[in-house]
Amino acid sequence: MYSPTILVVDDEHNTRMGVSLTLQQWGKGQWDVDRAENGLSALEYLRKRAYDLLITDIRMPLMNGIELLETLREENNDVISILLTGFAEFEYAQKGLQLGAIDYLLKPIQQEQLIEAVEKALKASEKKKKSILGTFLLEEHGMQKGDSNYNKINNPSIESAIKYIDNNLDKPLTIKDTAQYVHLNSSYFSVLFKEETGSTYSEFVTTQRIKKAKELLIVSDIGLDEISEQVGYQTTSYFIKIFKRYEDMTPKQYRDRFLEKRKSLNKDT
């Protein structure tokens, strides 16, 4: 599982630390929170990493929150954002909403309001991500996320085996282990699996590993070492070799193609 990525931007040290620590505690250590003290510093982070959520103060030195959002729009970066503002900055907050901010919070920030706004924003980010992912998969592969040739499996044992495979892609997944899981003899299971899916067991497992890898490449910015582990390959070099064999490109090229497609989609919206 990958963690939601959040960037907190505020020139006030106490606010910056308070917001980030609150989110880390609420996320039970699963939310990946970075911090920046002004808009220019935030831009450096945002150009290097894809964030699920940006939480930024409006009034800051060097580059304020509105200027940050304007720059992100020019660069076709559609990160979901929340503004932090004082009572006297309401007009700026309205400008921020026009630039795509999903919400704003008045200082001093109340913990309950912060958590509510962040959870709402992360849901919006996930919805947008799935929409872009679906468009990309449809254009690149003629399929929607979740589509499969295996949806019409009629045998309960094979259905159970497929679920077992999909839930354990980080493991070796030998045919013996999967056959034992569904209480079948390995030889019989192998024949039955091919009859039901049209693929050999090893072909199917590899296809599912690559499919999961493609999703991780698109919806997260985690490195290839971690992705290769999550989809069951002991070495990154072997993962890259198999991925290229199936997709005619490296994992990095696949991710770069998606990022370019996302920029193109953002320009059209």
TrEMBL record:
InterPro entries per the UniProt record, alphabetical: CheY-like_superfamily, Homeodomain-like_sf, HTH_AraC, HTH_AraC-typ_CS, Sig_transdc_resp-reg_receiver, Tscrpt_reg_AraC-type_HTH
BP GO annotations: phosphorelay signal transduction system
Membrane-spanning segments: none
One MF term in the entry's GO annotations: sequence-specific DNA binding
CDD domains according to UniProt: REC_YesN-like (cd17536)
Keyword Nucleotide-binding: no
Limits of the HTH araC/xylS-type domain: 159-257
Location of the Response regulatory domain: 5-122
Protein name as it appears in the record: DNA-binding response regulator
